[in-house]
Write a structure and sequence with these properties.
Length: about 375
Protein backbone atom coordinates (compact mmCIF):
# COMPACT_ATOMS: atom_id res chain seq x y z
CA UNK A 1 0.00 0.00 0.00
CA UNK A 2 2.78 2.35 0.94
CA UNK A 3 4.47 1.41 -2.27
CA UNK A 4 1.36 2.16 -4.19
CA UNK A 5 1.01 5.56 -2.59
CA UNK A 6 4.50 6.58 -3.48
CA UNK A 7 3.94 5.18 -6.89
CA UNK A 8 0.89 7.27 -7.35
CA UNK A 9 2.48 10.41 -6.12
CA UNK A 10 5.60 9.94 -8.15
CA UNK A 11 5.22 12.96 -10.04
CA UNK A 12 6.87 12.43 -13.10
CA UNK A 13 6.40 15.43 -14.99
CA UNK A 14 6.82 12.91 -17.68
CA UNK A 15 4.67 14.61 -20.00
CA UNK A 16 2.86 16.46 -17.36
CA UNK A 17 0.71 17.84 -19.96
CA UNK A 18 -0.32 21.25 -18.98
CA UNK A 19 -3.52 21.20 -20.82
CA UNK A 20 -5.19 23.81 -18.76
CA UNK A 21 -6.33 26.25 -21.31
CA UNK A 22 -6.23 29.59 -19.67
CA UNK A 23 -6.30 31.36 -16.43
CA UNK A 24 -8.36 34.14 -17.78
CA UNK A 25 -11.26 34.98 -15.62
CA UNK A 26 -12.35 38.52 -15.62
CA UNK A 27 -12.22 39.42 -11.98
CA UNK A 28 -11.09 42.46 -10.12
CA UNK A 29 -10.48 44.72 -13.01
CA UNK A 30 -7.85 46.96 -11.57
CA UNK A 31 -4.43 46.28 -10.13
CA UNK A 32 -4.71 49.01 -7.50
CA UNK A 33 -6.06 48.06 -4.07
CA UNK A 34 -9.51 49.41 -3.40
CA UNK A 35 -11.42 50.07 -0.17
CA UNK A 36 -10.72 51.96 3.03
CA UNK A 37 -7.10 51.03 3.65
CA UNK A 38 -6.91 52.81 7.01
CA UNK A 39 -9.91 50.83 8.28
CA UNK A 40 -8.20 47.74 6.88
CA UNK A 41 -5.07 48.51 8.83
CA UNK A 42 -7.08 48.75 12.05
CA UNK A 43 -8.46 45.26 11.46
CA UNK A 44 -5.01 43.94 10.61
CA UNK A 45 -3.56 45.35 13.82
CA UNK A 46 -6.35 43.92 15.89
CA UNK A 47 -6.92 40.50 14.29
CA UNK A 48 -4.14 39.51 11.94
CA UNK A 49 -0.91 40.92 13.34
CA UNK A 50 -0.23 37.96 15.62
CA UNK A 51 0.27 35.67 12.65
CA UNK A 52 0.72 37.76 9.50
CA UNK A 53 2.43 40.82 11.02
CA UNK A 54 1.24 44.36 10.27
CA UNK A 55 3.74 44.34 7.45
CA UNK A 56 2.10 41.24 5.96
CA UNK A 57 5.04 38.93 6.57
CA UNK A 58 4.06 35.55 8.00
CA UNK A 59 5.58 35.27 11.47
CA UNK A 60 6.33 31.57 11.37
CA UNK A 61 7.01 28.93 8.73
CA UNK A 62 3.73 27.76 7.24
CA UNK A 63 2.02 31.14 7.54
CA UNK A 64 1.72 32.83 4.17
CA UNK A 65 2.94 36.34 3.45
CA UNK A 66 0.04 38.59 2.53
CA UNK A 67 1.92 41.77 1.65
CA UNK A 68 1.51 42.84 -1.96
CA UNK A 69 -0.68 39.81 -2.75
CA UNK A 70 -3.46 40.38 -5.27
CA UNK A 71 -6.45 41.86 -3.50
CA UNK A 72 -8.94 39.77 -5.45
CA UNK A 73 -7.18 36.64 -4.35
CA UNK A 74 -7.07 37.67 -0.67
CA UNK A 75 -10.78 38.49 -0.79
CA UNK A 76 -11.63 35.20 -2.43
CA UNK A 77 -9.56 33.28 0.15
CA UNK A 78 -11.35 34.95 3.06
CA UNK A 79 -14.69 34.06 1.50
CA UNK A 80 -13.52 30.48 1.15
CA UNK A 81 -12.57 30.25 4.81
CA UNK A 82 -15.94 31.70 5.70
CA UNK A 83 -17.79 29.23 3.47
CA UNK A 84 -15.72 26.33 4.73
CA UNK A 85 -14.19 25.65 1.31
CA UNK A 86 -10.80 26.16 2.91
CA UNK A 87 -10.20 24.90 6.39
CA UNK A 88 -8.52 26.82 9.13
CA UNK A 89 -10.29 27.26 12.43
CA UNK A 90 -8.96 30.70 13.37
CA UNK A 91 -9.55 32.13 9.92
CA UNK A 92 -13.03 30.71 9.69
CA UNK A 93 -13.93 32.42 12.91
CA UNK A 94 -12.37 35.72 11.91
CA UNK A 95 -13.87 35.66 8.44
CA UNK A 96 -17.31 34.84 9.79
CA UNK A 97 -17.20 37.94 11.97
CA UNK A 98 -16.19 40.18 9.08
CA UNK A 99 -18.56 42.04 6.80
CA UNK A 100 -17.80 42.06 3.11
CA UNK A 101 -16.57 45.65 3.48
CA UNK A 102 -14.20 44.57 6.27
CA UNK A 103 -12.79 41.87 4.02
CA UNK A 104 -12.40 44.33 1.19
CA UNK A 105 -10.62 46.80 3.45
CA UNK A 106 -8.25 44.39 5.10
CA UNK A 107 -7.46 42.73 1.76
CA UNK A 108 -6.83 46.13 0.25
CA UNK A 109 -4.55 47.02 3.14
CA UNK A 110 -2.35 43.93 2.77
CA UNK A 111 -2.37 44.22 -1.02
CA UNK A 112 -1.13 47.79 -0.77
CA UNK A 113 1.94 46.88 1.30
CA UNK A 114 5.36 46.53 -0.29
CA UNK A 115 6.38 42.96 -0.98
CA UNK A 116 8.21 41.18 1.82
CA UNK A 117 11.94 41.14 1.14
CA UNK A 118 13.29 37.66 0.56
CA UNK A 119 14.31 35.65 3.53
CA UNK A 120 15.88 32.97 1.38
CA UNK A 121 19.10 33.82 -0.40
CA UNK A 122 18.47 34.39 -4.05
CA UNK A 123 21.62 32.73 -5.20
CA UNK A 124 20.77 29.43 -3.54
CA UNK A 125 21.37 26.75 -6.07
CA UNK A 126 18.14 24.97 -6.81
CA UNK A 127 18.46 21.80 -8.62
CA UNK A 128 15.43 20.08 -10.02
CA UNK A 129 14.50 16.49 -9.20
CA UNK A 130 15.99 15.55 -12.56
CA UNK A 131 19.28 17.25 -11.82
CA UNK A 132 19.43 15.71 -8.36
CA UNK A 133 18.67 12.31 -9.86
CA UNK A 134 21.52 12.76 -12.27
CA UNK A 135 23.95 13.39 -9.45
CA UNK A 136 22.68 10.42 -7.43
CA UNK A 137 22.88 8.20 -10.51
CA UNK A 138 26.66 8.56 -10.61
CA UNK A 139 26.75 5.92 -7.90
CA UNK A 140 24.96 3.49 -10.21
CA UNK A 141 27.01 4.08 -13.36
CA UNK A 142 29.64 1.48 -12.55
CA UNK A 143 27.10 -1.31 -13.09
CA UNK A 144 24.11 0.28 -14.82
CA UNK A 145 26.21 2.29 -17.24
CA UNK A 146 26.36 5.92 -18.22
CA UNK A 147 22.79 7.22 -18.42
CA UNK A 148 21.46 3.86 -17.27
CA UNK A 149 22.53 1.88 -20.32
CA UNK A 150 24.38 -1.03 -18.78
CA UNK A 151 27.02 -3.02 -20.63
CA UNK A 152 27.37 -5.78 -18.06
CA UNK A 153 25.57 -9.04 -18.84
CA UNK A 154 23.10 -9.86 -16.07
CA UNK A 155 22.71 -6.23 -15.02
CA UNK A 156 19.55 -4.55 -16.27
CA UNK A 157 19.55 -1.24 -18.09
CA UNK A 158 17.51 1.41 -16.31
CA UNK A 159 17.44 3.95 -19.13
CA UNK A 160 13.94 4.71 -20.35
CA UNK A 161 12.36 2.32 -17.84
CA UNK A 162 8.92 3.16 -16.49
CA UNK A 163 9.30 5.49 -13.49
CA UNK A 164 6.76 4.03 -11.07
CA UNK A 165 8.20 0.63 -11.75
CA UNK A 166 11.70 1.89 -10.94
CA UNK A 167 10.48 3.31 -7.65
CA UNK A 168 8.77 0.04 -6.78
CA UNK A 169 11.82 -2.03 -7.78
CA UNK A 170 14.20 0.09 -5.72
CA UNK A 171 11.91 -0.21 -2.72
CA UNK A 172 11.72 -3.95 -3.12
CA UNK A 173 15.49 -4.18 -2.79
CA UNK A 174 15.37 -1.74 0.05
CA UNK A 175 12.90 -3.81 1.98
CA UNK A 176 14.49 -7.11 1.09
CA UNK A 177 11.47 -8.27 -0.93
CA UNK A 178 13.75 -8.69 -3.91
CA UNK A 179 16.95 -10.48 -3.22
CA UNK A 180 20.16 -8.97 -4.52
CA UNK A 181 22.68 -8.28 -1.83
CA UNK A 182 24.61 -5.66 -3.72
CA UNK A 183 21.53 -3.71 -4.67
CA UNK A 184 20.34 -3.73 -1.10
CA UNK A 185 23.54 -2.30 0.31
CA UNK A 186 23.73 0.14 -2.57
CA UNK A 187 20.34 1.61 -1.87
CA UNK A 188 20.22 1.34 1.88
CA UNK A 189 20.69 5.02 2.47
CA UNK A 190 18.44 6.48 -0.17
CA UNK A 191 15.29 8.10 1.11
CA UNK A 192 11.95 8.40 -0.63
CA UNK A 193 12.73 11.67 -2.33
CA UNK A 194 16.04 10.37 -3.61
CA UNK A 195 14.36 7.29 -5.02
CA UNK A 196 11.92 9.51 -6.90
CA UNK A 197 14.79 11.62 -8.19
CA UNK A 198 16.62 8.55 -9.45
CA UNK A 199 13.52 7.14 -11.12
CA UNK A 200 12.76 10.42 -12.80
CA UNK A 201 16.27 10.72 -14.13
CA UNK A 202 16.60 7.18 -15.45
CA UNK A 203 13.14 7.08 -17.00
CA UNK A 204 14.01 10.08 -19.14
CA UNK A 205 17.21 8.62 -20.62
CA UNK A 206 17.24 7.14 -24.09
CA UNK A 207 17.60 3.37 -23.93
CA UNK A 208 19.82 1.45 -26.31
CA UNK A 209 19.33 -2.17 -27.31
CA UNK A 210 21.52 -4.53 -25.34
CA UNK A 211 22.11 -7.14 -28.03
CA UNK A 212 20.78 -10.46 -29.23
CA UNK A 213 20.35 -13.38 -26.91
CA UNK A 214 22.84 -16.20 -27.24
CA UNK A 215 20.04 -18.69 -26.60
CA UNK A 216 16.50 -19.05 -27.81
CA UNK A 217 14.80 -18.15 -31.04
CA UNK A 218 13.05 -14.80 -31.32
CA UNK A 219 10.65 -16.03 -34.01
CA UNK A 220 9.56 -18.93 -31.82
CA UNK A 221 9.23 -16.56 -28.88
CA UNK A 222 6.93 -14.05 -30.50
CA UNK A 223 3.67 -16.08 -30.38
CA UNK A 224 4.37 -16.95 -26.76
CA UNK A 225 4.36 -13.27 -25.82
CA UNK A 226 0.71 -12.81 -26.79
CA UNK A 227 -0.27 -13.16 -23.16
CA UNK A 228 2.45 -10.80 -21.99
CA UNK A 229 1.78 -7.89 -24.30
CA UNK A 230 -1.50 -6.95 -22.62
CA UNK A 231 0.60 -5.62 -19.76
CA UNK A 232 4.11 -5.18 -21.13
CA UNK A 233 2.94 -3.51 -24.35
CA UNK A 234 3.39 -4.38 -27.99
CA UNK A 235 6.94 -5.59 -28.59
CA UNK A 236 7.72 -5.09 -24.92
CA UNK A 237 7.40 -1.32 -24.87
CA UNK A 238 5.20 -0.69 -21.86
CA UNK A 239 2.76 2.19 -21.87
CA UNK A 240 1.94 1.79 -18.19
CA UNK A 241 4.09 3.52 -15.67
CA UNK A 242 3.89 0.61 -13.19
CA UNK A 243 4.78 -2.12 -15.66
CA UNK A 244 8.36 -2.46 -16.83
CA UNK A 245 9.35 -2.31 -20.47
CA UNK A 246 11.17 -5.43 -21.62
CA UNK A 247 12.19 -4.37 -25.14
CA UNK A 248 15.94 -4.39 -25.74
CA UNK A 249 16.68 -5.35 -22.13
CA UNK A 250 19.67 -7.57 -21.34
CA UNK A 251 18.80 -11.19 -22.19
CA UNK A 252 20.58 -12.76 -19.25
CA UNK A 253 18.84 -10.39 -16.85
CA UNK A 254 15.41 -11.05 -18.40
CA UNK A 255 15.82 -14.80 -18.19
CA UNK A 256 16.92 -14.52 -14.58
CA UNK A 257 14.00 -12.23 -13.74
CA UNK A 258 11.38 -14.57 -15.22
CA UNK A 259 12.87 -17.49 -13.34
CA UNK A 260 13.05 -15.47 -10.15
CA UNK A 261 9.28 -15.02 -10.25
CA UNK A 262 8.98 -18.77 -10.05
CA UNK A 263 11.05 -18.79 -6.88
CA UNK A 264 12.04 -15.75 -4.89
CA UNK A 265 10.51 -12.70 -6.50
CA UNK A 266 7.08 -11.87 -5.12
CA UNK A 267 4.47 -10.68 -7.53
CA UNK A 268 1.35 -12.74 -7.78
CA UNK A 269 0.42 -11.36 -11.16
CA UNK A 270 3.73 -12.32 -12.72
CA UNK A 271 4.03 -15.65 -10.98
CA UNK A 272 0.78 -16.76 -12.51
CA UNK A 273 1.93 -15.97 -16.05
CA UNK A 274 5.34 -17.54 -15.93
CA UNK A 275 4.58 -20.59 -13.82
CA UNK A 276 3.63 -22.72 -16.83
CA UNK A 277 6.56 -21.77 -19.06
CA UNK A 278 9.28 -24.29 -19.81
CA UNK A 279 12.92 -23.19 -19.70
CA UNK A 280 12.96 -23.37 -23.48
CA UNK A 281 9.85 -21.17 -23.77
CA UNK A 282 11.58 -18.66 -21.54
CA UNK A 283 14.67 -18.64 -23.76
CA UNK A 284 12.51 -17.99 -26.83
CA UNK A 285 10.51 -15.23 -25.14
CA UNK A 286 13.68 -13.59 -23.88
CA UNK A 287 15.28 -13.79 -27.33
CA UNK A 288 12.22 -12.06 -28.73
CA UNK A 289 12.12 -9.22 -26.21
CA UNK A 290 15.88 -8.69 -26.24
CA UNK A 291 15.73 -8.13 -29.99
CA UNK A 292 13.03 -5.44 -29.88
CA UNK A 293 13.75 -1.72 -30.08
CA UNK A 294 13.44 0.02 -26.71
CA UNK A 295 11.82 3.41 -26.23
CA UNK A 296 12.11 5.94 -23.42
CA UNK A 297 9.20 6.07 -20.98
CA UNK A 298 8.86 9.79 -21.30
CA UNK A 299 10.50 13.11 -21.12
CA UNK A 300 10.67 15.31 -18.08
CA UNK A 301 11.25 18.92 -17.37
CA UNK A 302 14.93 18.87 -16.57
CA UNK A 303 15.13 22.13 -14.63
CA UNK A 304 12.94 23.70 -12.01
CA UNK A 305 12.83 26.85 -14.08
CA UNK A 306 11.30 24.84 -16.90
CA UNK A 307 8.60 23.56 -14.54
CA UNK A 308 7.94 26.97 -13.12
CA UNK A 309 7.51 28.45 -16.58
CA UNK A 310 4.31 26.48 -16.80
CA UNK A 311 3.04 27.86 -13.51
CA UNK A 312 4.06 31.39 -14.33
CA UNK A 313 1.56 31.61 -17.14
CA UNK A 314 -1.06 32.15 -14.45
CA UNK A 315 0.89 33.04 -11.34
CA UNK A 316 3.29 35.56 -12.70
CA UNK A 317 1.15 37.62 -14.97
CA UNK A 318 1.26 41.36 -14.55
CA UNK A 319 -2.22 41.56 -15.92
CA UNK A 320 -4.39 41.86 -12.85
CA UNK A 321 -7.54 41.18 -14.81
CA UNK A 322 -6.22 37.98 -16.27
CA UNK A 323 -5.57 35.92 -13.21
CA UNK A 324 -7.19 34.72 -10.05
CA UNK A 325 -3.94 33.02 -9.23
CA UNK A 326 -1.94 34.40 -6.31
CA UNK A 327 1.59 35.72 -6.57
CA UNK A 328 4.09 33.18 -5.30
CA UNK A 329 7.54 34.72 -5.65
CA UNK A 330 9.03 35.18 -2.19
CA UNK A 331 6.15 33.30 -0.54
CA UNK A 332 6.94 31.18 2.53
CA UNK A 333 8.30 27.84 1.38
CA UNK A 334 6.57 25.65 3.96
CA UNK A 335 3.28 27.27 3.15
CA UNK A 336 3.70 26.59 -0.56
CA UNK A 337 4.56 22.96 0.09
CA UNK A 338 1.50 22.60 2.28
CA UNK A 339 -0.77 24.29 -0.25
CA UNK A 340 0.42 22.16 -3.17
CA UNK A 341 0.04 18.95 -1.24
CA UNK A 342 -3.42 20.03 -0.15
CA UNK A 343 -4.49 20.50 -3.77
CA UNK A 344 -2.93 17.25 -4.86
CA UNK A 345 -4.45 15.26 -2.01
CA UNK A 346 -7.85 16.86 -2.49
CA UNK A 347 -7.79 18.72 0.80
CA UNK A 348 -8.13 22.12 -0.78
CA UNK A 349 -10.64 22.83 -3.49
CA UNK A 350 -9.55 24.17 -6.83
CA UNK A 351 -10.14 22.10 -9.85
CA UNK A 352 -7.46 23.97 -11.77
CA UNK A 353 -4.78 23.45 -9.19
CA UNK A 354 -5.83 19.88 -8.45
CA UNK A 355 -5.55 18.92 -12.09
CA UNK A 356 -2.22 20.64 -12.18
CA UNK A 357 -0.72 18.99 -9.14
CA UNK A 358 -2.03 15.41 -9.18
CA UNK A 359 0.97 14.52 -11.23
CA UNK A 360 3.45 16.05 -8.82
CA UNK A 361 5.65 14.06 -6.53
CA UNK A 362 6.81 15.31 -3.19
CA UNK A 363 10.18 15.82 -4.86
CA UNK A 364 8.74 18.11 -7.47
CA UNK A 365 6.65 20.02 -4.96
CA UNK A 366 9.68 20.63 -2.73
CA UNK A 367 11.76 21.95 -5.55
CA UNK A 368 9.05 24.21 -6.94
CA UNK A 369 8.32 25.62 -3.50
CA UNK A 370 12.01 26.22 -2.84
CA UNK A 371 12.37 27.93 -6.19
CA UNK A 372 9.46 30.32 -5.63
CA UNK A 373 10.50 31.07 -2.05
CA UNK A 374 13.94 32.10 -3.29
CA UNK A 375 12.69 34.46 -5.98
CA UNK A 376 12.54 38.16 -5.18
CA UNK A 377 8.92 39.14 -4.70
CA UNK A 378 7.64 41.64 -7.19
C1 LIG B 1 -3.74 32.19 14.29
C2 LIG B 1 -2.91 32.70 13.22
C3 LIG B 1 -3.61 33.50 12.15
C4 LIG B 1 -4.36 34.65 12.30
C5 LIG B 1 -4.72 35.36 13.59
C6 LIG B 1 -4.74 35.05 10.96
N1 LIG B 1 -4.23 34.17 10.05
FE1 LIG B 1 -4.49 34.25 8.05
N2 LIG B 1 -3.54 32.48 7.83
C7 LIG B 1 -2.95 31.77 8.85
C8 LIG B 1 -2.49 30.50 8.34
C9 LIG B 1 -1.77 29.40 9.11
C10 LIG B 1 -2.86 30.46 6.96
C11 LIG B 1 -2.69 29.30 5.97
C12 LIG B 1 -3.94 28.44 6.16
C13 LIG B 1 -4.22 27.48 5.05
O1 LIG B 1 -3.42 26.59 4.81
O2 LIG B 1 -5.26 27.66 4.37
C14 LIG B 1 -3.50 31.74 6.68
C15 LIG B 1 -3.98 32.09 5.44
C16 LIG B 1 -4.57 33.32 5.17
C17 LIG B 1 -5.00 33.72 3.85
C18 LIG B 1 -4.84 32.91 2.57
C19 LIG B 1 -3.52 33.31 1.93
C20 LIG B 1 -3.12 32.52 0.72
O3 LIG B 1 -2.01 32.80 0.20
O4 LIG B 1 -3.87 31.67 0.27
C21 LIG B 1 -5.54 34.97 3.98
C22 LIG B 1 -6.13 35.80 2.89
C23 LIG B 1 -5.44 35.32 5.37
N3 LIG B 1 -4.85 34.29 6.06
C24 LIG B 1 -5.88 36.52 5.89
C25 LIG B 1 -5.93 36.81 7.24
C26 LIG B 1 -6.51 38.00 7.78
C27 LIG B 1 -7.12 39.11 6.96
C28 LIG B 1 -6.40 37.90 9.14
C29 LIG B 1 -6.92 38.88 10.16
C30 LIG B 1 -8.30 39.23 10.00
C31 LIG B 1 -5.75 36.65 9.42
N4 LIG B 1 -5.47 36.01 8.26
C32 LIG B 1 -5.47 36.18 10.70
C33 LIG B 1 -2.83 32.17 10.16
C34 LIG B 1 -3.54 33.23 10.72
C1 LIG C 1 27.65 -3.29 -8.11
C2 LIG C 1 26.77 -3.20 -9.26
C3 LIG C 1 25.51 -2.36 -9.10
C4 LIG C 1 25.41 -1.06 -8.67
C5 LIG C 1 26.52 -0.12 -8.22
C6 LIG C 1 23.99 -0.71 -8.75
N1 LIG C 1 23.28 -1.78 -9.22
FE1 LIG C 1 21.27 -1.81 -9.54
N2 LIG C 1 21.40 -3.76 -10.12
C7 LIG C 1 22.55 -4.50 -10.21
C8 LIG C 1 22.22 -5.86 -10.58
C9 LIG C 1 23.20 -7.01 -10.78
C10 LIG C 1 20.80 -5.91 -10.70
C11 LIG C 1 19.92 -7.12 -10.99
C12 LIG C 1 19.55 -7.71 -9.66
C13 LIG C 1 18.39 -8.69 -9.76
O1 LIG C 1 18.53 -9.66 -10.49
O2 LIG C 1 17.37 -8.44 -9.10
C14 LIG C 1 20.33 -4.56 -10.43
C15 LIG C 1 18.99 -4.21 -10.47
C16 LIG C 1 18.52 -2.92 -10.30
C17 LIG C 1 17.15 -2.53 -10.51
C18 LIG C 1 16.00 -3.39 -10.99
C19 LIG C 1 15.78 -3.15 -12.46
C20 LIG C 1 14.66 -3.92 -13.05
O3 LIG C 1 14.50 -3.87 -14.28
O4 LIG C 1 13.92 -4.57 -12.32
C21 LIG C 1 17.07 -1.19 -10.20
C22 LIG C 1 15.84 -0.32 -10.27
C23 LIG C 1 18.40 -0.77 -9.83
N3 LIG C 1 19.25 -1.84 -9.90
C24 LIG C 1 18.72 0.51 -9.45
C25 LIG C 1 20.00 0.91 -9.08
C26 LIG C 1 20.33 2.23 -8.66
C27 LIG C 1 19.33 3.39 -8.59
C28 LIG C 1 21.66 2.24 -8.35
C29 LIG C 1 22.49 3.42 -7.85
C30 LIG C 1 21.99 4.09 -6.67
C31 LIG C 1 22.16 0.91 -8.58
N4 LIG C 1 21.13 0.14 -9.01
C32 LIG C 1 23.48 0.53 -8.40
C33 LIG C 1 23.83 -4.04 -9.97
C34 LIG C 1 24.16 -2.79 -9.45
C1 LIG D 1 -1.16 -8.84 -15.72
C2 LIG D 1 -0.07 -8.04 -16.24
C3 LIG D 1 1.19 -8.81 -16.64
C4 LIG D 1 1.30 -9.88 -17.52
C5 LIG D 1 0.18 -10.58 -18.28
C6 LIG D 1 2.70 -10.19 -17.59
N1 LIG D 1 3.42 -9.33 -16.79
FE1 LIG D 1 5.45 -9.35 -16.53
N2 LIG D 1 5.27 -7.88 -15.12
C7 LIG D 1 4.10 -7.25 -14.77
C8 LIG D 1 4.40 -6.32 -13.69
C9 LIG D 1 3.39 -5.42 -12.99
C10 LIG D 1 5.79 -6.45 -13.41
C11 LIG D 1 6.58 -5.75 -12.30
C12 LIG D 1 6.40 -6.60 -11.08
C13 LIG D 1 7.38 -6.37 -9.99
O1 LIG D 1 7.41 -5.25 -9.43
O2 LIG D 1 8.12 -7.30 -9.65
C14 LIG D 1 6.30 -7.42 -14.34
C15 LIG D 1 7.63 -7.83 -14.40
C16 LIG D 1 8.16 -8.64 -15.38
C17 LIG D 1 9.58 -8.90 -15.56
C18 LIG D 1 10.70 -8.29 -14.74
C19 LIG D 1 11.24 -7.10 -15.49
C20 LIG D 1 12.38 -6.45 -14.79
O3 LIG D 1 12.86 -5.42 -15.31
O4 LIG D 1 12.83 -6.92 -13.74
C21 LIG D 1 9.69 -9.75 -16.61
C22 LIG D 1 10.99 -10.27 -17.20
C23 LIG D 1 8.35 -10.03 -17.08
N3 LIG D 1 7.46 -9.35 -16.31
C24 LIG D 1 8.06 -10.89 -18.13
C25 LIG D 1 6.77 -11.25 -18.49
C26 LIG D 1 6.47 -12.26 -19.48
C27 LIG D 1 7.52 -13.04 -20.26
C28 LIG D 1 5.10 -12.37 -19.54
C29 LIG D 1 4.28 -13.30 -20.41
C30 LIG D 1 4.62 -14.69 -20.30
C31 LIG D 1 4.56 -11.42 -18.58
N4 LIG D 1 5.60 -10.76 -17.97
C32 LIG D 1 3.22 -11.21 -18.36
C33 LIG D 1 2.86 -7.44 -15.33
C34 LIG D 1 2.54 -8.48 -16.20
C1 LIG E 1 -4.29 27.79 -15.31
C2 LIG E 1 -3.77 28.70 -14.33
C3 LIG E 1 -2.82 28.13 -13.28
C4 LIG E 1 -1.63 27.44 -13.51
C5 LIG E 1 -1.00 27.07 -14.85
C6 LIG E 1 -1.09 27.17 -12.21
N1 LIG E 1 -1.90 27.66 -11.22
FE1 LIG E 1 -1.54 27.61 -9.21
N2 LIG E 1 -3.30 28.58 -8.87
C7 LIG E 1 -4.20 28.98 -9.84
C8 LIG E 1 -5.37 29.55 -9.20
C9 LIG E 1 -6.61 30.11 -9.91
C10 LIG E 1 -5.13 29.48 -7.78
C11 LIG E 1 -6.07 29.90 -6.65
C12 LIG E 1 -6.91 28.68 -6.33
C13 LIG E 1 -7.55 28.76 -4.98
O1 LIG E 1 -8.26 29.72 -4.72
O2 LIG E 1 -7.33 27.83 -4.17
C14 LIG E 1 -3.83 28.87 -7.62
C15 LIG E 1 -3.25 28.64 -6.39
C16 LIG E 1 -1.97 28.10 -6.20
C17 LIG E 1 -1.30 27.97 -4.92
C18 LIG E 1 -1.81 28.42 -3.57
C19 LIG E 1 -1.09 29.68 -3.20
C20 LIG E 1 -1.59 30.34 -1.96
O3 LIG E 1 -1.14 31.47 -1.70
O4 LIG E 1 -2.41 29.76 -1.26
C21 LIG E 1 -0.10 27.37 -5.16
C22 LIG E 1 0.97 27.02 -4.14
C23 LIG E 1 0.00 27.16 -6.59
N3 LIG E 1 -1.14 27.60 -7.20
C24 LIG E 1 1.10 26.60 -7.22
C25 LIG E 1 1.18 26.37 -8.60
C26 LIG E 1 2.29 25.70 -9.24
C27 LIG E 1 3.54 25.21 -8.53
C28 LIG E 1 2.00 25.65 -10.57
C29 LIG E 1 2.83 25.02 -11.69
C30 LIG E 1 3.12 23.62 -11.51
C31 LIG E 1 0.71 26.29 -10.77
N4 LIG E 1 0.24 26.70 -9.55
C32 LIG E 1 0.10 26.47 -12.00
C33 LIG E 1 -4.03 28.90 -11.20
C34 LIG E 1 -2.97 28.25 -11.83
Amino acid sequence: MKKLMIGMTLSVAIAVVMTVAGCADKGAATGKPVGDLAAGKTIAERDCKGCHGVDGKGLAPGIPNLANQRQGYLMASLMEYKDGKRNHAALKELATRMSEADMQNVSGYFASLPAVPNSVAVDVKHSSPYEQGKVLAEACAKCHGEDGNSKAAGTPSLAGQQPHYLVAAIQEYHQGERKATMMKSMLRDSDKLEIEHLALYFSAQTPTKRGASARGDAAAGEPLTAMCSGCHGARGVSADSHTPSLAGQDAQYLAGAVKAYRKTRQNWGMQRYVAGLSDQDIDHIVAYYASQDPQPAGSVATSTQELADKCNRCHDTEDATASKAPKMRGQDKDYLVMALRAYRDDKRESSTMHRMSVAYSNAMIESLAAWYASQPAK
